[in-house]
Amino acid sequence: MTSQPPMTPQPMGTQPPLGQMQQPQPLQNQLFRPQNNPMQAQQQSFSRSGTPQMSRPPYQMTSGQFSPQLSSRSPSPGFPPPPTDKQMPQSPNIGNASPITGRHRQKYPEQMGKAYSNGPESLPNMNQGMQTPQQPQFFVPGNMGQQNMMQRDLQSPVPGFQSPMNSLSNSFSNMNLNSQKNVTSVSLFNAPPNVQTIDNCPEPVIPAQFCMQSEKKNPPYGYCCSTLNAVPQNNALLQKSKIPFGLVLSPYKNIGPDEAEVPVVSPEVIVRCKICRAYINPFVTFVDQGTRWKCNICHVVNDLPAFYSWDSKTRQAIDRSTIPELNSAVVEFVATKEYTHRPPQPVVIMLVIDVSFQSIQSGMVATAARTILSSLDSIPNYDNRTKIGFITYDSTLHFYNLNSSLTEPQMLVVSDIDDIFIPAPDDLLVNLSESRAVIENFLNKLGNMHKNTQNVSSALPAALTAANKVIGSIGGKIAVFQSNLPNCGKNSLKKREDPTLYNTSKESTLLQPADHWYKDFALDCSKKQICVDAFIFSGQYTDVATISALPRFTGGSVYFYPGFDASRVEDATKFSSELNRFLSKKHGFEAVLRMRSTRGVSIKGFYGNFFLMATDLVQLPNVNPDNCYALEASIEKDLTSEQFISFQSAILHTSNNGERRIRVVTNVIPVTNSLTEVFANADPRAIAVLTAKKAVERTISDKLEDARNLIISTCVDIMGAYKQAFTSSGQASQLLIIENLALLPVLVQALLKNIAFRRGNIPSDIRSFALSVLYGSPIENSLAYIYSKLYAIHILDANTGLPIPNTSQVYMPPRINLSMQRMTQDGIYLLDNSQHIIIWLSRGSNPELVNALFQKPYEAIQSGKTTLPTPNNDYATRINNIIECIRKSRLISYNNMPYVYVVKEDDNNRGWFISHMVEDKLDSELSYPQFLSHLREQDIKKEIAKQ
Questions:
Q1: Is 297 helix (H, G, I), strand (E, B) or coil?
Q2: DSSP string, 655-691
Q3: Phi/psi class of residue 563: alpha, beta or left (left: φ > 0; alpha: ψ in -120 to 50)?
Q4: What is the distance of C-alpha 278 from the center of its chain?
Q5: Rounded distance, CA 92 to CA 158, Å?
Q6: Residues 756-800 pLDDT 10s
Q7: pTM for the whole thing?
Q8: Residue 90, SS3?
C-alpha cells in the first residue's frame, strides 16, 4: 500500500461486495457542510494547565439542519489534558503540507492553535456523483467556524518510510555491499508514533535479473512476509543486528473479493529440482539458450521439459510470460498420480454437540441446529461425496442413525462412557446428498429434542473418543460445541481457576493444559488426518487452556462466546454467521507442509496450529485458511556467494473438489553485507507478529513473565544494536532508531499490554483465548489485535464511509493514536480491536450526531452489545458502511464477526475501552513516554553488565 496524505481517506482491506453496501440517502436534511478552506489556520487558546479552551457550539436542529449557538465548554471528566512536555507533540500542522509530497511537519502544543479554520459551504449532492476534491476537504456538522477536532486525531506519515525498499525495487545488485550508507535516525522522544504507517506494508522486492525480466514479485504481504527484507551475509552480522530472522506465512489464506485467485495449473509433468526437489517458480534462471533451468534454492541445473518451449498442438513457440508457474509467486499445481497414495478424501464433518442444561438454556443447541440446516447447501459437496454425522452428549452419548432408507432419524443412547461402544457404525456417518431428507428432519427436531433436560454433566472426552472411532478410517473434521466444563467420565476436568495465582509465577499453570490426554488425543487425530475445531460457550469457567490443545495440534481453530445467550440477537447473529462460514469455506484435507530454503539457511523454530513432524515438515490434517504460521530461521554458513536466498513452502493437500493439489509459495530475499541495509529493510510488523507467536509458545511451555521478558528483550536488543552501530556517545540519551523501525517500540508496548500478556486479574479463559488468537490468526488480524484501530467518526471528509468505485471497499477515516489525549470531549470514536467494534460516547458528544446515529439521545442509549438502527440519514449510512465493511472483512479473512459495543463515558465498560489506550498509563503498565525511558534504562543496564 502506498503512503497517502493523512487527510485522504484510507481504503479498507478485504470488504463486502459493493452491491451489499448501503448507499447514502439524498441529503434532504444535511448533517454536514464542507469546510470552505480547510488549510486556513484558526486560533485556539490554551489555559495554564495546557488544556485547550475550545469555542465549541452546542447544536440545535432548525429546519432540518444544525444551527449553532456559541458557548464554551470545559473538558469532560475522564479526559486528561494534553501533555505540556514538549518532547511529546500533540498534533500535526496540516497547514504546512507540501503541495508536492503531501507530507507534514509535526506541530507542538504551543503551536496547535494555528492549525485549522473552517468556512461554510454546502455538500455536493451525492446523487450527482462524488467528485474527488483537489485538496483534502473536511466538513463538520453545523457551524463551520467551529474548531476542527481532526487536528488532534491525525498523525502525518513518516517521511521516507518506504524509502529503504526503493533501493531494492529494481534489482538486488543495486545494494551497496561494500560500504555503510548514511542512515536517517529518528528520536523516539521527539514525536508520538505515526500509527497511520502501520498499514503501509513494505512492497515486495522485485528481482529484475530473473528469467522473464518482467514484474516478478514476491507473494503479496498476506501470504508471506519476512522480518528482514535484506538478509545478512553471515550469522555474525545477523547476531550483530539482534533482529529475529523469520517469516510469517498464510499460504492457504482466505481470498477477498478484490484479490486475485491463485492460478491453478495442470502441466503434463510437475517440474522439480532433481536435488532439492524444489518446484519450478518465477525466480529460477534459464541457461543453455533456455533449454535448462537453474534452481534458485540449490543452484543445480536441471533439464527443462519441451512443453515449456514448444506447443506440439499449435506447433508454435511458447510465450513463457503466459505460464503461471513462471510468473506467479503463489501457484497451485494439480497433483499427478505419484502424489496420491489413496483415493482423495471426501469432505467429512462430524458435529459433536453438548446438550447439557446450560447448552439448552442458552439457546446454543437450537441456534446451531437452525444454522446447520440453513447451511447444508453451502457445505462443499463436489461430486456428492461429502459425509456428515452427529453426536450429542451430556452424561451419556447419543448417536443418530441417519440412513437414507429411514423416514425418521433414530437416536441410539450409550450410557457406558468408560468403555465406548459404537452402535450401527455404518449409519452414523452418512452421505449428505443421499440422506438429505433424514438430516433435515433430524435438524428440525434437534432444537427441542432435549429441551426438558436437567442434566448438567458433560462427557466431552467420551464424545471425542466416539467421534474419532467413527471417522478415524477416513479422516475429516470434528466440530465440538461445548458449554460446560468437561466434568464427567474419564479425563474429566475440575475447576482450577484460582484468582490468588494471578500476577504470580504460578499463573502460567492456569494457562497450560490440565490433562495431557487432550494433547495425546489431538496427536492421535493428527495421525489419522482428523482436525478438531472447538466452539466454546459459557458464562462460567470452561478451561479454555485445556480444550484449546485440541485445535492447536490438529490445525483447527477456537471460537469463544463467553456469556452466550441466543435471546440476544447480537449473540445469535455472531455465532450463526461464524458457523455458516465455518461450514461453507474452503479447506484442504490430509495435508503436509514442506519448507525449503537456500543452503546455509536453516529453520530453527515453527509456530502455529499443527503437529511438527520434522524441522521442515509440518503435519496438517486440515489446511485452515484462517490460520497463520511463523518460522524462525538461522544462518548456518556464509552466504557470500549468494545474491539472494529463497524460501519455498509447498502444501500437498486434498481440495474441496476431491483433487490432490500442491500450493507453492516462493519468496526471495536479497543478501547484503551492510548492517545499514539490514536495519533499513527490517519490518516491525512482521517482527511484532513473530515475537507474539514466540511469546505464546513461551507462556504455554514456561511462565507468563518469561514471555513478557522475551517481548521486551527483543525490542531492547534491537535498539541497543542500532545504538551501538550507528549513534555517537553524545546521542545516547535520545533513544534513536532508524525510520522504518520507529513503530517497533509502540507495537512491543501494545503487545505487553495485550490481554494475553498484560499483568492484572484476568480470568484464565479470557487470557487463554487471547493467546490462541495471537498464535493462529493472520498477520492483518494479529496487527489489529495487538494495536487496535481507532477512528474519529464525528468529523468525516467528503468520501469517508462511501464505497470505493469498482471495489468492495469503503473509504476509511484516518487512524489516530491509542491515547485518550488524542480524543476530544465532544467526539465520537470507533475502535476496532479485530474481535470487537466499540463506539465510544461521552457526555459531551455532539448530541445531533448521536441522535442521527442511534435515533435516540445519549441518555436513552444502552451500553453493551448493540445493533445499530437502520440508517435514515447520510451520516448514519456512512458509519454503518464502515462498520459493515470491517465486520465482513473480518468474517472473510478470519471467520470472525465482531460484536458492536457501545461504551459510554459514565458506565462500567469505560475501563475496558480505556485498556485499549496502550500509549497511556494503565494501572502498573507504563505510558508510551515512560516505556521509552524504560527501554533506555534497560539498554544502559545491559551496557554496564557487559563492562
A1: coil
A2: -TTS-EEEEEEEEEEEEES-HHHHHHTB-HHHHHHHH
A3: left
A4: 30
A5: 11
A6: 999 999 999 999 999 999 999 999 999 999 999 999 999 999 999
A7: 0.81
A8: coil
